[in-house]
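Please check our next protein.
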Amino acid sequence: MEQSQRTGIARGGLSFMLAAVVIFALGATRTYPSDGIIAALVVLGVAVAIASQVLDNPVLAAVWFAPVIAAIVLFLQQDTPSENLVTQSVVVGAIGVAQVLFSQVGR
C-alpha cells in the first residue's frame, strides 16, 4: 500500500473517531438529534471542506468529513432514545480505530 493510500485511510479513520465524539456528546447530554442539529453538522462539514481547500490545510482536510458522518448517524437514529447514541458512538469510534490500524498495515 502506498503512502498516499495509507494517509487517506488514516484520515478517514480520524473522521470516524471525531464523529464518534460528537455523537457521544449528544447522547451523553441526552440531546435529541433534531433536524437543526443535523443540518448544522452538514453545513459545518461543507464549510471545513471548503476551508481546507482554500487554506491548503492538511488538518482540516483530515477532519472535514467528521461532522457529515455524525449527521448521517444522527439522521438514521432520530427515532431512537438518546441512550442509543452512546452505543452508536462506540460503533463509529471502533470503525475509526480499525481504519487507523489498517492504514498502518504493510508499512
